[in-house]
Write a structure and sequence with these properties.
single chain, Rossmann fold, six-stranded mixed sheet
Length: 280
């Protein structure tokens, strides 16, 4: 593990919209590999991503990318610095192909620019061929190669979300923020997503931060999880530490989850309805 600065560090982040305090004194350090961020709806998770990627300015605090403060940097400057991002609802160019959407993830890497492409300069054509190869390799990881030249709006939601993940990862930015990447995906798409993400994490030192409501998915991927509730970090640690934390059970997992944990420790298996008699 590197002794240098963490890929992503948040220090004393505060955000308020009017009188509504959304983040209050958030301190987090995310290392290489998978990092999970969980919490109830409205906890401030997406706002935290928006602060990191430059969509929201904090009223106080710092965002450090490999030790460098990102204050006053625009959204595009943060992308250029090495922050990739997906959204809860895919933000694709729907009348463009899957390949064209994925190429957008490499635009900060283009050296010669679009004028050189239009003039068909040899060096620009070489650069474009390499970019397309890189994009195709990434699309193959997520079983999208066969639809590379299909318009994005003709794909189902699950495939569109996978395209957005591929676009965020294709330039191998040091930090990638994935906002509910598995939400709305069927079982087959989730399998493809996890296989692709695990392959990339095994081959690179990317810092991947995932917001997900599927605790089982987060726990299976992330050795480190932080829990946000009403704008504050209430717990952080390994999946086992977090899921056994009384504050997390009270705020997020519920007493039915605690009952299942206790039963499992005694070698008894109970269903969700047994743990939550009032559940429908």
């Amino acid at each position: 593990m590197s002794d240098g600065p963490a890929p992503l560090e948040l220090r004393n982040l505060h955000v308020a919209f009017g009188g509504n305090r959304v983040l209050e004194g958030v301190d987090l350090t995310f290392g290489s590999g998978f990092n999970g961020l969980i919490g109830p709806n409205g906890a401030g998770k997406t706002t935290m991503f928006n602060v990191v990627s430059g969509y929201v300015a904090p009223s106080q605090g710092e965002v450090l990318l490999a030790g460098k403060d990102l204050a006053n940097r625009s959204q595009s400057a943060r992308v250029a610095a090495g922050i990739g991002r997906t959204f809860q609802a895919p933000k694709l160019v729907l009348d463009a192909s899957v390949m064209e959407n994925t190429l957008l993830g490499l635009q900060q890497r283009y050296r010669w620019g679009h004028l050189a492409e239009l003039l068909r300069m040899p060096w620009a054509r070489t650069e474009e061929r390499q970019a397309r190869r890189d994009c195709m390799n990434m699309l193959e990881r997520f079983d999208l190669a066969d639809v590379a030249h299909t318009e994005a709006d003709s794909l189902p939601l699950g495939s569109q979300k996978l395209v957005e993940v591929a676009r965020a990862l294709v330039a191998e930015p040091p930090v990638v923020l994935l906002d509910e990447p598995a939400a709305g995906l069927g079982a087959d798409d989730v399998t493809v997503l996890l296989r692709g993400l695990r392959g990339i994490a095994a081959e690179t030192e990317l810092c991947i931060v995932i917001i997900e409501h599927d605790l089982q998915l987060v726990a299976s991927l992330c050795p480190y999880i932080a829990v946000l509730d009403f704008g504050r970090i209430i717990s952080e640690g390994t999946p086992d530490e977090v899921t056994h934390d009384p504050a997390v059970i009270e705020a997020y997992l519920g007493h039915g989850f605690a009952a299942r944990l206790e039963a499992e420790s005694l070698g008894v298996t109970i269903g969700e309805d047994d743990a939550n008699p009032g559940a429908e």
